[in-house]
Amino acid sequence: MAAAPTEPSAALADAPSARPAPLPQAVRWFGVASLMTDASGDMIYPLIPLFLTSVLGGSVAFVGIIEGVAESTASLLKLISGRISDRLEHRKPLVLFGYGLTSLVRPLVALATAPWMVLLIRFGDRVGKGLRGSPRDAMVADVTPKDQRGRAYGYHQAMDNAGAVLGPLLGFALMVGLHLSLRTIFAWAAVPGLLAVVAILAVRETPRRAPARARASQGAPLELAGSGPLRRYLAVLGLFTLGNASDAFLLLRAAEVLHPGAPVGSAALADPKLLLLWSLHNAVKALLTLRGGALSDHHGRKVVIAAGWAVYALIYLAFGFANSAWQIWLLFALYGLYYSLVDGAEKALVADLTPASKRGAGFGGYNAVLGLLSLPASVLFGVLYKTWSARVAFGAAAALAAAACALLFVVVPSPAPEE
Model's pTM, two decimal places? Predict the structure, then answer.
């Protein structure tokens, strides 16, 4: 008797899906929140270095101190908040409070009359980021299968980047179209910040199992959780971070090239085209980050991360030698390629190398390394920039990135399959 033909439904069930499964609802709401938060932040971020130097009389070195303190604060708090969230039945309250604090504090830049006030406001802004970051990243890992984590983090970063495209465009429209002052534009940043809080309220979280919470309660609050492979990855990441100074220096470099000969504190550097440059950079990130995260699901996290770090090294080297406007526009666009490759892959590798019961602490360790080194990285860059030249500062950063790229394959093993 001839064999019965295969049922079409069975054949379709066995065949690989032509379309990936939809991402969890929580991941999508987090994406909306990031869209709005970054729209709020990037309405004003490209203008803050120029506001500090041309309006408040701050120095380039102080710009580095402010950004270094801000990012160090955020990352150190991510270490603590991640470990705390591992002990809680729900991570969402920490996430909600973090988004709310940032949305409340950020528009206060409009009231600043001295550089130290901007420092305090940026500090408060980054406290909010620190409280929400690790619990949110852990929630994404909790609800997403391993073979989709790169795509999930890539999606989140893509929405983040889309907000960073929208924000500068809104700022440009307010500055050029409505002729509003810098302070008024800073105040308007409150509106998308409020919408971000509304999106977090829509996130539904399933309580986590008690055994996982019990295991997570062990260890000191500031312990860098994770296995040897995770620690080795964080060490290599730390070397890269030493050369990864604040993006505020890219904006200052762009202002110098667009207005050759103008002193750093000159009002001529307050160019609205910087908002368009920042929007272009983030548009590239928004278009490519989802794809970059998915690439790490199929080709390996380390390959994609190393590619991103190599791109970073080349772009930073080129920033040091740039001397015309078209080069600056091209480099800002290419800089988005670096972010699109690493944003999803770096976080996915942390999730792969961290036990499920300690994911909050694992992401806390990841962010703590970034934070501990962001202050010395920005201060060192600012000193090199001021004492020698932009070429020396950007060249040193490129060299550190190239060294980290090579060590990634030598020091960090590939993650084991997840059971």
Answer: 0.65
